[in-house]
Specification:
Structural class: mainly alpha
Order of helices and strands: HHHHHHHHHHHHHHH
Oligomer: single chain
Number of strands: 0
Length: 332
């Protein structure tokens, strides 16, 4: 039964990826105008002259993607390039490939946003469960509502407030960037400390901006779980309160939270683009923001493909571990 369950989820994964990637092909082509011409005209407006490399980019991209070909042929070429891991070249930063640009940005985003999301999830889930637990200390009922108020502030606005407080008023952190541009980077402790130092402020804005969301969701789930009969039975057996809280309460309330965590991790870039842009962080969010403002058509399309794949894989992993979290799923 477990193998059948995984086979169904694998089929759903492939179907979701196919439909989403196809939509990613269709939507940009519904927009009026030629993206290559748009990038070329923007380049001309900035420089005042037609650069030879821009002309080469325009000719290359028209020939590569066959913009004059029938749509069905463009669609087949699109899938052929994806299967060969070819996301084309950047219109703005020619001759850099989109794959190399994304590969350089992914470690920054995975480190910053991934760790910040997991920290916010852990802190928020524990605080939300304690808020619903009758035996929790009074300080929890003061701390968590304040955290929920802070989480109602958008990420980018919270980032601006932190920059004002800890860069302008109290100059503790750097204003932005992922590292000190005048330092020599290498695989050593000094480089790691420098990168962590530059990532602390954007990470704090992400944790403060989302921990209240996780706490609010976990509180609602925990309240519903505490009303179940098995909680009453565990208390009647005389089990320690800590065991009831962790193994009977939080464990069962975490299932919907894990699904939300997978969605948050899979779509981590789309929700925090402005945070990386504000802090000038060299991740996928900053790259996507620069591509949108520069109308770099193929960079945008490549990043969206990465978002589709990461979200689909994250949901698949959650579906795969659900039978381990809740044995009832194995038999259904």
């Amino acid at each position: 039964m477990l193998l059948e369950y995984l086979a169904k989820r694998t089929f759903q994964l492939l179907l979701i990826v196919f439909v989403a990637v196809s939509i990613n092909f269709v939507i940009p082509r519904l927009l009026p105008g030629d993206p290559v011409e748009a990038a070329l005209q923007r380049k001309i407006a900035i420089s005042g002259t037609v650069s030879a490399d821009v002309e080469a980019v325009a000719n290359l991209e028209r020939e590569k993607f066959g913009l004059n070909k029938p749509v069905w042929q463009q669609y087949l070429d699109y899938w052929w390039n994806l299967f060969h891991l070819d996301l084309s070249t950047s219109l703005v930063d020619f001759p850099m490939t989109v794959t190399s640009m994304i590969a350089a940005a992914i470690p920054w985003t995975a480190t910053l946003l991934g760790v910040a999301t997991l920290v916010a999830f852990s802190i928020g889930s524990v605080l939300g469960a304690l808020l619903a637990w009758p035996r929790s200390p009074p300080i929890i009922r003061i701390l968590v509502p304040g955290l929920m108020v802070v989480s109602s502030v958008p990420f980018f606005l919270l980032g601006l407030v932190l920059i004002f407080l800890f860069v302008v008023v109290i100059p503790v952190f750097p204003p932005g960037g992922g590292f000190d541009p005048v330092s020599v980077r290498g695989f050593n402790l000094a480089t790691v400390i420098d990168m962590v130092y530059h990532a602390l402020l954007p990470a704090i804005s992400l944790v403060l901006g989302s921990a209240g969301f996780w706490a609010l969701g976990m509180r609602s789930l925990m309240v519903s779980v505490l009303g179940e009969d098995y909680i009453t039975f565990a208390e009647a057996k005389g089990l320690p309160p800590s065991r009831i809280f962790l193994w009977y309460g939080m464990r069962n309330a975490l299932l919907p939270q894990v699904t939300s965590l997978a969605i948050a991790l899979g779509s981590i870039v789309s929700g925090t683009v402005l945070v990386e842009a504000i802090f000038n962080y060299p991740g996928l969010g900053g790259l996507l923001f620069a591509a949108i403002t520069g109308k770099d058509y193929f960079v945008i399309q490549g990043i969206v493909v990465i978002l589709i794949l990461t979200l689909a894989v994250a949901l698949f992993i959650v579906d795969a571990i659900y039978p381990l979290l809740d044995p009832r799923i194995r038999y259904q």
